Amino acid sequence: MQYNSFNTKLTFFQKLKNLDLILLICIILLGIISAVSMYSTDGGEILFHTRSHITKFLIFFPMMIVLSFLDIKVWHYLAYLFYAILLILLIWVSIYGVKASGSQRWINLYFINLQPSELMKVAIIACLAKYYHRVGLDSVNTFQSVLTVLIILILPIMLVVSQPDLGTSILIASSGLVVIWLAGLNIRYFVYSFISLLIALPFVISFLKSYQKLRILTFLNPDRDPLGAGYQIIQSKIAVGSGGLTGKGFLKGTQSYLNFLPEKHTDFIFTLFSEEYGFVGSLCLLLIYIIIIYRVFKIGSISRSYFAKLYCYGFSSAIFIYVVVNMSMVLGLLPIVGSPLPIMSYGGSSMLATMLGFSIVMSAKINHKHLIS
Amino acid sequence: MFTENFNAGKLQTINRRMFIIGVFKVVIFTGIIARLFSLQISDNKKYLTLSDKNRLREWRLPPVRGEFVDYFGNIIASNLKVYQLHIIPEEVEDFRHLMLRLKEILNLHDNEIKRIIKRKEKKKPWETLVISENLTWEQFAKINYFLHDLVGAKPVLSISRSYPFDDNYTHILGYVSEVSENDILNSEVIKNNHVPGLKVGKTGLEKTFEEQLIGVNGVQRYEVNAYGKRIKQIDYQEGEHGKRVKLTVDTEIQKLSNKLLKGLAGSISVMDIYTGEIVAMQSSPSFDPNLFLFGISHDDWQLIRNNPLKPLVNKTLSGLYSPGSTIKPIVALSALENNIVNKDFKVKCTGKMEMYGQTYHCWKKKGHGIVSLKEAMKQSCDTYFYEVARKLGVDRLRETALKFGLGEKVLQDTFSIEKKGLIPNTKWKQDNLGIGWVIGETLITGIGQGYTQTTPLQLCLMTAQLANGGYKIYPRITVNENEETYEEIKSLIEKNKQLNKGLLEASEGLFSFAKGKKHEPLYRNFENIKLIQEAMFASTNEVRGTSYSSRINDPKYQFAGKTGTSQVKRITKKQRELDLNTIDIPYNDRDHALYIAFGPYKNPRYALSIVIEHGGSGSSAAAPIAKKLFKLILDRHEVREKIRKEKSEKI
User: Fold this and answer.
1) Distance between CA B160 and CA B291 in Å, rounded?
2) What ipTM describes this predicted complex?
3) Is the Cβ–Cβ distance between A206 and A195 less than 8 Å?
4) What is the band of B16 on the pLDDT scale with cuts at 50, 70, 90?
5) Using alpha carbons only, what angle is made at residue B199 by residues B193 and B205, rounded to the nearest 5 degrees?
6) B 31-70 residues with CB below 8 A of A?
7) CA dihedral B444, B449, B453, B459 (to 10 degrees)
8) pLDDT digits (tens, 9 = 90+) for A239-269
9) From residue B63, how far is each of A71, A213, B176, B242, B581 by CA, in Å?
10) Is residue B404 pLDDT above 60, yes or no?
11) Topology adopted by domain B251-285+313-650
12) Residue A93 is part of which domain span?
């Protein structure tokens, strides 16, 4: 019962004081940078994308702070529910969802087209963190535990793949796997599943949609069809490469304003940024992400409750994965799979999910001395 | 609740594993930074170039082709602005869709679409396909309006040739048409200035002066967006207008020549007898070169190609005719020069002449009686010239004929189609036919039949050189600034005349040859030339002269000439007895009618030659044309002189 002494109620000002300032500054910085980039994608005017993006940031950022005042216990308590609701929403989407460009991912909520799969990226971490919070180290590798975890992981992945949305499902899978890894699942399982994945790969490929196969082929050789499937990768590389050391300057990215860049608001926002601000700018942006990743990790490391720790470690790694997958993709290191750059990319659900994720992190920071019984 | 040990084990695991992930993160981020470095720093130049290549498009503008003007500055080949539609098949996303849209917008016919597709299949995908060469402004505007829906289509402002005088200059100027692969391979200049839809000269002077006419194309550099839409102009490089070519030709005379030849197959050439300037040169029938500008239609082409009068042949330059009696001045001159005969040499013409078992007929059955040289020329007595030719021999005749411009190209390389003709001699026959010359052939050569073949322009040059007193001239059809003037040539000729008479020191005479063109005398004795000129005068202006009925009495227009009727087919004994009228003979068997003349007689300035294919006789078909021409030629002479004097004053 000695630990309970830490679980005293914090006053509002104590909570406010406990907010992680560096993390907040970094998020605000990202918000500003993304607004400026969005302004640039609109060709130097405040048009729909800029306005919408700023509005969303201005709604979701305060929401994140407000939600972070929720006790970590509450988050812990809500984790399964959060996951369950999203699972239901994913099923809902697969039946009643809004279709756009060949996939069915969205629920029309009138003020926002909600994409549950984005939120699932956070929910899966929280859910698994809660699960492992209760499970002892020796029970992690039991058949029952492994099976439970696999079911938790595979259900949403199956649903997202069927939308189809390969990018998000890969991100959900990797976020989940990171948590499972952190929780201490025997390394053997990873090795085995890796080998079996290799064996299964040819079969998996045969199940891929033709455009997905094309993307992989194109990734392996973008010049195969420069005006078709390879166009995005080639144009993105040209944009980044032509940026040089200091970039072409604000609103002067010819690749983007002359529309050579595809999807510049969303997946390729980094390309635009990189073209306009060059190597130096890209490094700065990368640095902000590194600080965020590090801060989230740091909050995890000072958290006393296992749930908070596992969640923060998981979320920190997840942000890392989002950033790396997105950047590798636009730099031609990975095939093109739809994956937004957190906060930078246009997209309400992605921003909402990221902010929700940060709320839990922030809550963990505020209540880092608390244990969860 | 969990125990502390239990908790510690979990913590140890999670921290250890987080550390591993941390190391992993560092490695991956280093990789990303390395990638950024390689793209943005190491390969920056490469990608910068690629980015510029993306956004900058160069438009090569068609060069403005130089005009042709006549002697008086009238434009006879000009340029028009035309609106065209080009397509690069490679840049088209959906060719079928594009064709469907274009069909709607331009109201294209199914057949036209088929033809376009056929042409597309022949070309490489990156080569420009010209869909339409001459759009109306409405069509052009419509295309521009729908451009966003016509990916790959390019509306282009281009320049096209225009020939305001239609068929009047076709055989001189030729025509332009789309560049062929051979044109590009053969000419560096065409290759350098090539833009899709460019037209280059295919025949005539358009072809000869191609490299001067073509000009240099301008270049426009635009920034374009990903859809190829021009955003703004970055750079503009003005092209160079092609060189203007001035011809020696007089459009008025050219037009009259064309009119006089309407419906006939034949040729008219008119030449300044001192400067060698070609004042008119028309071959008939002609055709409208404007038909070729935007691709000639099948029907039009068949009409031109299948015309029995052969409009595609330039008869003035590449039509080969037996000169008939028009050679007689040369035969007579050659005989005089070689002292074979003198002006008093007489022959009795009985209408025919027996020699080595062959009968040679004079055109006049009853014969001319006893004729002198002058009388024989005047009445074109064949018997006289059989006798003269027999005495002269073909070899000496050839020498004189060559001197006066037969058997050689008149305009050297100006027209690739020009023919040399043929002036035979004994050696030629031995070398080419492998048999020896027979005397009978000499006789018929003496009246311009047999192997002898000449072009109408050669006959014109021959006449000019007889008319100017027997001095060499250098025919040309373009005006060159550094060409010697009429006065210079005239004085040079005068000096040559004195020199020939031995009145001037030889050295002084040589000194005046400085300009290169000597205009040397072609005769040995000037009196011989004079005699020939007088004989030609008599032939036109004295009673019983063969072209007496076409004479002009007004001394201002008075001219001297010689008719010629050249046999196309050997006349059989039977036909000779029948003595058919021209009209009763099948067209292709009728004789060619020829006429050469110069005037005004008192102070000659112009020479001409007229050939009417299958026209019957020279006196009835060709000489009357000369009468009409000389009136205009000499009226126009005054205007021409004015222009010439203004020009020489300027210099």
Assistant:
1) 12
2) 0.92
3) no
4) very high
5) 100
6) 31-33, 35-37, 39-41, 43-44, 46-48, 50-51, 54-55
7) 100
8) 999 999 999 989 888 888 888 887 888 889 9
9) 79, 49, 14, 7, 57
10) yes
11) Beta-lactamase (3.40.710)
12) 12-366
Indicate the number of domains in chain A. Answer: 1
Residue B14 has pLDDT above 60, yes or no: yes
Taking the C-alpha atoms of residue A358 and residue A362, their distance in angstroms, rounded to an integer, is 6
Two tokens, residue B264 = 């006939």
Return the structure tokens found at B38: 């390689």
Which tokens in the block code for residue B329?
A: 């001045």
**Taking a C-beta distance cutoff of 8 angstroms, is the pair B551, B599 a contact?**
no
E-state strands within B497-591: 560-566
CA distance A371 to A308: 9
By C-alpha distance, the chain B residue nearest A239 is: B51
Do A42 and A35 touch, CB atoms closer than 8 A? no
The residues facing B232 across adjacent strands are: B223
* Cα–Cα distance list, B646 to A99, A124, B483, B641 (Å): 84, 99, 15, 9
Q: Is residue A371 part of a domain?
A: no
In chain B, residues with a C-beta closer than 8 Å to the C-beta of A331 are 32, 35-36, 39
Q: Is B354 exposed, middle or buried (CB count within 10 Å of its CB: 0-12, 13-18, 19+)? A: exposed
What confidence tens digit (pLDDT) does each residue in B35-80 have?
999 999 999 999 999 888 888 888 788 888 999 999 999 999 999 8
Q: How far apart are CA A183 and CA A70, in angstroms?
A: 25
Q: Are B132 and B85 in contact (CB under 8 A)?
A: yes
- Domain B57-246 falls under CATH 3.90.1310.10: yes
pLDDT of residue B511: 47
**Cα distances (Å, whole numbers) of residue B233 to B55, B221, B237:** 11, 6, 11
Assigned token pair, B483: 């060409």
Q: Tokens standing for B14?
A: 């999670």
Terminal-to-terminal C-alpha distance of chain A: 10
**Which contiguous run of DSSP H or E holds residue A106?**
strand A103-108
State the count of interchain CB pairs (< 8 A) between A and B.
128
- Give mean pLDDT, residues B219-229: 79
**Facing B47 at nearest CB: one of A238, A283, A324:** A238
Say whether residue A178 is in contact with chain B using an 8 A CB cutoff: yes
Q: In A, residues 115-144, which contact B (CB 8 Å cutoff)?
A: 136-137
Question: Which has the closest alpha carbon to B313: B270, B268, B266, B281?
Answer: B266
* pTM of model > 0.80: no
3-state SS assignment for residue B201: strand
Beta-bridged to residue B329, according to DSSP, are: none
**DSSP assignments along A241-299, one per residue:** HHHTTT-S-TT--HHHHTT-SSSTTTTTHHHHHHHHHHHHHHHHHHHHHHHHHHHHHHH
| Span B523-540, average pLDDT | 93
- The whole-number average pLDDT for the span B101-125 is 83
Tokens of B353: 């002449």
Instruction: Please check whether residue A7 lies inside any domain of the structure.
Output: no
**Inter-residue contact B209 to B245 (CB < 8 Å):** yes
Task: Indicate the length of chain B as a whole number.
Answer: 651
Task: Flag whether residue B14 sits within 8 Å of chain A, measured between CB atoms.
Answer: yes
Question: Looking at the domain assignment, is residue A361 inside a domain?
Answer: yes
Between residues A54 and A338, the one the model is more confident about? A54
pLDDT in tens, B454-508: 999 999 999 999 999 999 999 999 998 777 888 888 888 888 888 777 654 554 4
Planar angle of CA A219, A224, A226, nearest 5 degrees: 90
Cα–chain center distance at B73: 19
Which residue is associated with the tokens 């490489």? B124
State mean pLDDT over B556-576. Answer: 86
CA-CA-CA-CA torsion sign (B183, B185, B191, B195): positive
* Placement of tokens 């509450």 in the chain: A74
Sign of CA dihedral B622, B628, B632, B637: positive
Nearest to A254 by CA among B575, B67, B47, B172: B47
- Residue A372 covered by a domain: no
